[in-house]
């Protein structure tokens, strides 16, 4: 038998839990509630199968008709938000363009299936047009990072993207597409188009990982983390879809649609979070705690060799010897780069520690320390300036030093 005190405690906790749920839902606004309801309706329709088979493909495609446009609208709202940094707004504008490409290609793909009888030329055109989506997505996400990069940094980023793209395409080809075309006299463009989507998903993930590795403002960081989860779900959905498409067994209303809808909803949720929370005033770049994302390209270098090693069982012994030597050399290069990465992280950490010590000494010094540039403009002022001059230090930064001298 429950005592009155225990019963009151249970009811209080239940009330508190309900309030937390209501507060969480309210924090996402009506847009978040509408998207959540849409995802639930779509999932229920997929799992319960309430419609005849003849209508299932049409209804399944109709569910995705407005998705890309809604995502583009939310991204464009962020592009017009004056609370965000100009580069972040530019990034959201590029993302709005990416989502418009996604919306256009999705509806063209559905129209080709429903009205043109899955025309091969139409599929190739749509799949090629879809390749613009990961390009705009990567460019938009990279705008969340620091504005200025050295030529070496840009080259390193480009090589990382190339590594991920080639490694992903190699894996998709060997494990998903190769067997279907084993006896074909020649390869057609459909092979390339089916390689583009999974590789593009992973390039988008790499772009988000690079920005999270280098740092951005706090609100944008959370938005990108939500979008990274959505991009991972989309990559999973495309990996399931690719072999179905190669076998021509995919139709609208397939259970894989649930992964796509969930991934798109998470991408929308990331944009909605940025829209409702705004951005941070002081972005923090080069966060050493997220250096683990820099290991992503190395994984794809290793993964790109897996199909080759598997195929080498049918080669001659001399051919396998050359292959193994090549793999060994590549692993040495990867190990060398990994060691260099760890050394750079260590040097960066030591540099930050020394800078923190110097800043602490200057901030707590009784002497006044002023740093000016070549034009005599105050760029730094220690805390002791207020005691001597009567002005808070931040009021003096950006003013000519001559304003303080009589």
Describe this structure in words.
This protein has 406 residues and is mostly helical. It is built from 15 helices and 2 strands. A two-stranded antiparallel sheet has the order 1-2. A hairpin with a 5-residue loop joins strand 1 (370-372) and strand 2 (378-381). The longest helix has 47 residues, at 317-363. It is globular. The N and C termini lie far apart (85 Å).
What's this, in brief?
The chain has 406 residues and is mainly α. It has helices at 4-27, 29-48, 53-64, 67-79, 86-115, 120-130, 132-142, 151-177, 189-214, 218-246, 256-277, 296-311, 317-363, 385-389, 393-396, and strands spanning 370-372, 378-381.
In angstroms, what is the radius of gyration? 27 Å
Total of helices:
15
Overall helicity: over 70%
Low-pLDDT stretches: 286-290
Question: Which of globular, elongated, flat, extended, rod-shaped describes the shape?
Answer: globular
Strand content: under 5%
Read across the widest sheet, the strand sequence of neighbours is 1-2
Q: Based on DSSP secondary structure assignment, what is the total number of beta strands? A: 2
Mean pLDDT: 76
What's the SSE blueprint?
Blueprint lengths: L3 H24 L1 H20 L4 H12 L2 H13 L6 H30 L4 H11 L1 H11 L8 H27 L11 H26 L3 H29 L9 H22 L18 H16 L5 H47 L6 E3 L5 E4 L3 H5 L3 H4 L10
Antiparallel strand pairs: 1-2
Notable features of this structure?
about 400 residues, mainly alpha, 15 helices, two-stranded antiparallel sheet, single chain, about 0% strand
């Amino acid at each position: 038998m429950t005592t009155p005190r225990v019963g009151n405690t249970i009811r209080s906790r239940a009330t508190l839990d309900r309030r937390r749920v209501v507060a969480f839902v309210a924090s996402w606004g009506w847009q978040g509630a509408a998207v959540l309801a849409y995802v639930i309706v779509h999932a229920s329709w997929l799992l319960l199968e309430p419609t005849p088979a003849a209508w299932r493909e049409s209804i399944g495609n109709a569910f995705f008709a407005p998705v890309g446009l809604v995502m583009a609208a939310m991204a464009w709202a962020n592009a017009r938000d004056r609370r965000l940094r100009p580069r972040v707004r530019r990034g959201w504008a590029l993302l709005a363009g990416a989502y418009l490409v996604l919306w256009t290609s999705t509806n063209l793909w559905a129209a080709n299936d429903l009205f043109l009888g899955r025309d091969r030329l139409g599929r190739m055109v749509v799949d090629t047009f879809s390749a613009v989506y990961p390009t705009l997505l990567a460019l938009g996400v990279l705008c969340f990072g620091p504005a200025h990069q050295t030529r070496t940094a840009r080259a390193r980023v480009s090589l990382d993207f190339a590594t991920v793209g080639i490694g992903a395409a190699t894996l998709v080809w060997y494990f998903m597409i190769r067997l279907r075309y084993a006896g074909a006299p020649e390869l057609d463009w459909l092979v390339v188009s089916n390689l583009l989507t999974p590789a593009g998903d992973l390039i988008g993930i790499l772009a988000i990982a690079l920005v999270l590795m280098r740092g951005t403002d706090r609100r944008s960081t959370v938005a990108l983390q939500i979008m990274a989860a959505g991009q991972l779900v989309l990559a999973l959905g495309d990996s399931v879809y690719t072999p179905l498409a190669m076998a021509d067994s995919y139709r609208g209303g397939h259970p894989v649609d649930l992964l796509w809808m969930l991934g798109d909803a998470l991408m929308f949720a990331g944009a909605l979070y940025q829209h409702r929370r705004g951005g941070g005033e002081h972005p923090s770049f080069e966060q050493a705690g997220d250096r683990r994302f820099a290991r992503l390209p190395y994984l794809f270098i290793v993964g790109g060799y897996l199909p080759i090693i598997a195929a080498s069982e049918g080669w001659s012994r001399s051919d396998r010897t050359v292959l193994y030597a090549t793999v060994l050399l590549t692993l040495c290069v990867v190990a060398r780069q990994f060691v260099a990465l760890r050394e750079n992280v260590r040097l960066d950490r030591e540099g930050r520690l020394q800078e923190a010590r110097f800043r602490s000494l200057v901030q707590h010094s009784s002497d006044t320390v002023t740093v000016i540039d070549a034009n005599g403009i105050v760029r730094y002022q220690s805390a002791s300036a207020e005691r001597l001059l009567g002005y808070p230090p931040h009021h003096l930064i950006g003013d000519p030093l001559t304003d303080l001298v009589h």
